[in-house]
Amino acid sequence: MTIYTLKTCDSCRKAVKWLRKNGIAFQEIPIREQPPTLPELRLALKNANGDIRKLSNTSGHVYRAHTLKDSLPTMPEAEALALLATNGNLIKRPFLVSADFAMAGFDPLKWSYSLTPDP
Q: What are residue 28's DSSP bridge partners?
């Protein structure tokens, strides 16, 4: 399990705390220094039903400065993913990756469903 985080991100801290509380082993990677790879982003996009906005940090400074609200959803998929892969500030945090899924943002209910074994 890999989680991409930002040290100053409250959701990231909550997610890491949740993983530890649930006994889930993980590797933490700083998202600005090492953004998720193209294969990881493709997997997350698949899990987001192809909605690139669900992977995007839409409230971020870089997103707003480059006016990506209108251009990102209309970009070809390969171009949009390449853009995200080059700038961790554009990706919604935390970004969680396992062998068979990836997702952006912390949602304890979704994470419980995806990460914890059935009783």
A: 3
